[in-house]
Please model this.
Amino acid sequence: MARTIIVSNRLPVKVQRDSNGDLQYKSSEGGLATGLGSIYKDGDNVWVGWPGLYFKDKNKAQKAEVTEKLTSENMDPVYLSESEIKLFYEGFSNETLWPTFHYFNQYALYKKSYYDAYKKVNQKFCDAVLELANPDDTIWIHDYQLMLVPDMIRQKLPDASIGFFLHIPFPSFEVFRLLPWRRELLDGVLGSDLVGFHTYDDMRHFLSAVSRICFIGNQQGQITKDRRTIMIDSFPIGIDYDKYANSSAAPSTLSKEVKFRTSMGDQKLMLSIDRLDYSKGIAARLEIFDIFLSKYPEYQNKISLIMVVVPSRDTVEKYKNLKEEVDLLVGRINGKYGSMNWTPIHYFYRSFPLDDLSAFYRMADVALVTPMRDGMNLVCKEYVASKLDKKGVLILSEMAGASKELSEALIVNPNDKHQVVDAIYKALTMPVEEQEKHMAFMQKAIKKFDIHHWVKLFLDRLNSVKEQQKVMGTK
Ligand code: GDG
Model:
């Protein structure tokens, strides 16, 4: 029977060692894991990926234990060595591709040793898939860490159904062309039958790169390479709407909200939640809050910013520097405006369980989501889904993929700090009926186009592309 094989850098379960060296298995709460959960756990389907830790040779027994446990739960682990984690993951993925694709190309490092490791690890993932795959299986590969895998598989399984989805933006041709390995990356992705992006603009940029670098044109998103047709399209990812709406109504969330509210007193609350990343605009957001408090002094003592920064990639230099910058800015603003009974910024450098997160979403009068660049951004969608009483205002960067769907939010350019400052003022003074109207509109869209809808849409489309290839004899 045909199976679905999901391939991503990380498995939906993270394996960690505790302080005694014992193994802990932590399920990912991320949207992708939820959306694809019902698929990879079904029948013989399987999820191929890295479990998040590495083993020294002396730990062979532990490695075997991890493999057995993950295999019994429909996962197939790909193990990476310490140097592969450094060169492939921290290196090419996060110091070359990530900055380039987020228009921070001045941060990008172009090192041959990084690319060589990337190619080697992509081959490792390909080999893991080939060990499992039958010719009629559907293979769905995710994200920028694995761009070479589709074509590597295609070379061995010419008839396979291969889908690829990019979770981050695809940059304009003028930025993408800076990469020394631009052609290899495009050829890698074009091993797919269906290539998906979050937005129409990402898709357009990809098609333009294919046209300028590979000299292949397209007809309404369809291209032909080596007599094979490939479809390129946008599939904006959704969230597990019911999970966030239900969590917002849960008794544990309500009691946390009461507890937090009591300790913060009667004031307006603004929320910011991100992984630590320069693409998320965290430092600029702090500067914006500083300008807001000085431009609208009547809000001093009357508004606090709850800022959650989730530790991420802290072994990469740029991320270490950003952490220091954020620490300094928070200290400076709290020192400048704070009083005995008011702290302007409540800053948390850690992650929280879902009921805490839901309590934050419920409490926030305003969500300030101002990335410099973001593939989609799920935090803004989760905020909307959590607002059961429909009161609250979303301020959203036009650089986030989500802004294309959430046009009822206050849309801002994060580089225009004064525009964002005025948007905060507008949000805080917005009549309740207007808040409810905008929120209801956004909730309707996010509920309809949720993560389950997204998974089905992509896989159905891949299926129909394959059918079409058969009919046209262009497989
Ligand atoms: C990539 C793309 C695209 C955050 N803090 C906590 C917590 N979170 C969860 C949020 C949300 C997720 O992390 C972050 O998702 P984003 O979409 O905002 O950002 P990336 O991690 O950069 O994701 C992005 C996404 O892929 C999907 O395609 O939207 O553009 O960069 O779900 O809720 N969760 C918990 N505690 C926290 O403290 N439990």
Observations:
- DSSP finds 17 helices and 16 strands in the chain.
- The chain has a mean pLDDT of 94.
